[in-house]
Amino acid sequence: MSIARQAATLPLPPGRTGLPWIGETLSFLLDPDFATKRRQEHGAIFRTHIIGRPTVVMSGAAANKFILSTHFDKFSWRDGWPDNFKELLGASLFLQEGVEHQRNRRLLMPAFHGKALTNYVSTMNEITDRYLAKWSQTGNLTWFPELKNLTFEIASVLLIGSEPGAETIELSRLFTELTNGLFTIPLNWSYTTYGRAVAARDVLLAHIEKVVLERQQAPTQDALGLLVQSQDEEGNRLSVAELKVQALLLLFAGHETTTSLVSSLCLALARHPEILATTRAEQVQIGLDAPITIDSLKQMTYLDRVLREVERMYPPVGGGFRGVTEEFEFNGYRVPKGWQVLYRIPEAHYDAEIYPEPDTFDPDRFAPERYEYKPSDYNFATYGGGSRICIGMAFAQMELKIIAAKLLRHYSWELLPNQNLTLDPIPTLHPRDGLKVKFEKLDMSA
């Protein structure tokens, strides 16, 4: 019997399809534990019907490796993501594939590595200092939206050269409207969440087009300026339409997940004062007034462990969609061509066989003598993996480290009572009540 014929005799994964047309979409969107409950019932692979398509959910390190690496050619990014993403984020790198993706990734790469990162440090420092000083004067605040304004301003200034101030705050608000539409029913009416998201996208694209045209006339050293000047091996450059959607993606990817990770870091340290003390002691040893540079960031090895543990326990997104372009077999089950797959990140991050006591916040699991993270095993997937690992990973990790170091050196924060600290996963992981804190400047001379 041929391999193809043998695969055709295998059963479909266990599960159910739910209601006609909508399937289990409402449960998927409204129940944060949807995938966890189904995994407990069916195992590491199960079928459902969400967002208009039959879907297989696969979880665990083996599933991550299968989808992101060893069987990468059986899946499509463009066909996997819901139409909301395609309409709101456009035909950007996020949804491109094959030669087109490889070419544009090469064009974007210089803006996120090497010399460009070094040039970003001083701006990240300056913007962060300004926000921290403002928060200390405010005292009690709802932190998550403020953190989003901070990370968006950093992304906006460094990636498209925006001027700090009222315009940047308004652009941040528009991005919040846009991201609210990524996981909602796509009814494009002015009063719906999705309708407001489309309207916000249009305003953002109009702003970006204006900036693109300015950069073409007078190139700058922000990421968009570098992108305008970039050309492929044949001397071709991106068109204005291409630059617009790539810049929109840069802004989205450059702040949304970072905001989630910063807020999770601050929440985790507030809940673990002993780890906060150890992390702060490292900053004291380096020097509270020592400049934060590329070289000094390398000295913050304990902070590295803390951030890695935050990324493990609190991944900003729960996984990724792919379209199935070729029927495949996994764990004895058949997945037909034309379905979609959702790979899940948290299950690998909380696998007790990989990470002992996975519910415990333990940065030392990433100490050199233990180091439970093994990239080749795909047991850690916060930034994806394989050839399409997040292009902005180094940018995000540097930004996280700078913000964390400045917080630890000069400020304290205390969780306020009477708030819901449950973490909602959509659109990215965030505290339900926005993380209410008492924020103060530290007196390190006492």
TrEMBL record:
It holds the Pfam family p450. Keywords: Heme, Iron, Metal-binding, Monooxygenase, Oxidoreductase. Heme binds at residue 390. GO terms for biological process: sterol metabolic process. Gene3D superfamilies: Cytochrome P450. InterPro entries: Cyt_P450 (IPR001128), Cyt_P450_E_grp-I (IPR002401), Cyt_P450_sf (IPR036396). Its cofactor is heme. One of its GO terms (molecular function) is iron ion binding. It comes from the Bacteria. Belongs to the cytochrome P450 family. This is Cytochrome P450. It comes from Chamaesiphon minutus (strain ATCC 27169 / PCC 6605). The lineage of its organism: Bacteria, Bacillati, Cyanobacteriota, Cyanophyceae, Gomontiellales.
